[in-house]
Amino acid sequence: MTATVLSGRDLASAIRAETSAEAAALTAAGRPPRLAVVVATADESAAWYVRSIARSAEKAGISCDVVDLGADATAGAIRERLSELSADDTVHGVILQTPLPAGAALEDLASAIAFEKDVDGAGPLSLGRLVAGLPAFAPATAEAVVAILEHHGIALTGLRVAVVGRSLVVGKPVAHLLLDRNATVTVCHSRTVDLPAVTSAADVVVAAVGRAGLITAEYVRRGAVVVDVGTNPTEDGGLVGDVDAASVAERAGALTPVPGGVGPVTTALLLRHTVRAAAR
Ligand SMILES: Nc1nc(=O)c2c([nH]1)NC[C@@H]1CN(c3ccc(C(=O)N[C@@H](CCC(=O)O)C(=O)O)cc3)C=[N+]21
């Protein structure tokens, strides 16, 4: 038996279609939606995401400015740029890519993004409101995890979910989104003792660590649902997840692929957030 593939492509297309229509209406009303993507890294995973955002934005009729400050940018220079973009009335969404140069941290810098433009939900107000259950943009990747599960009819109420990874853009926010859907959530990380024992007890495993092939069959209970958030570039220019798909597919009940799983949904949601920000 091999796991059902939980594709993100159809869901991403549906979100994009809706977003394109909203973008066209905004443009017709003289308010063309515009997203600024701030980059200060040579990281290949971020480069994949930026290319994906730029390509999808163009197709959806959203302007997308990639502001590359270089991998040597200082925290001060990044903060200044975020403040400028926050003050620019023609820009509706601002995202700062991770990773960042040494001495710069997303949790510090995201406070320079105006709350209304924080389309990747990285700032303290967005995150605080997310935890409180108040309206705010959720980090697109975290939202994509829940969206792909719901799209495939997986009801989360009462399920045990193990989230592997505690980053600001995925692990922490996704834990709260899952909790809001009445899942029982365990957040695991590099210091977790006996990680395979914890993940094997879960009905759903969300892998968001950034280490290719970390999650093998021994981490997964037979029939469990596995969501692979990893986007690890390979030597030959491809992309692989945190899940060793070949071994896990023999044990899991369902598995999101990389590419074609959480990634396309993430990009689509970021653009949806941008048109919603422009519509306000
Ligand atoms: N503040 C911040 N938020 C992030 O969400 C964030 C980040 N920084 N830094 C970099 C990583 C990486 N990441 C990806 C998202 C989608 C694809 C993606 O769309 N991948 C496609 C393949 C690429 C394509 O087809 O163009 C797929 O999985 O099918 C890749 C990588 C988000 N990240």
Automatic annotation (TrEMBL):
Pfam families: THF_DHG_CYH (PF00763), THF_DHG_CYH_C (PF02882). Residues 6-120 form the Tetrahydrofolate dehydrogenase/cyclohydrolase catalytic domain. Belongs to the tetrahydrofolate dehydrogenase/cyclohydrolase family. Residues 139-279 form the Tetrahydrofolate dehydrogenase/cyclohydrolase NAD(P)-binding domain. Pathway: One-carbon metabolism; tetrahydrofolate interconversion. This is Bifunctional protein FolD. Keywords: Amino-acid biosynthesis, Histidine biosynthesis, Hydrolase, Methionine biosynthesis, Multifunctional enzyme, NADP, One-carbon metabolism, Oxidoreductase, Purine biosynthesis. Catalyzes the oxidation of 5,10-methylenetetrahydrofolate to 5,10-methenyltetrahydrofolate and then the hydrolysis of 5,10-methenyltetrahydrofolate to 10-formyltetrahydrofolate. It comes from the Bacteria. It comes from Streptosporangium lutulentum. It catalyses: (6R)-5,10-methylene-5,6,7,8-tetrahydrofolate + NADP(+) = (6R)-5,10-methenyltetrahydrofolate + NADPH; (6R)-5,10-methenyltetrahydrofolate + H2O = (6R)-10-formyltetrahydrofolate + H(+). Its EC number is 1.5.1.5, 3.5.4.9. Homodimer. GO terms for molecular function: methenyltetrahydrofolate cyclohydrolase activity; methylenetetrahydrofolate dehydrogenase (NADP+) activity. PANTHER family: C-1-TETRAHYDROFOLATE SYNTHASE, CYTOPLASMIC (PTHR48099:SF5), C-1-TETRAHYDROFOLATE SYNTHASE, CYTOPLASMIC-RELATED (PTHR48099). The keyword Cell membrane does not apply. The keyword Oxidoreductase applies.
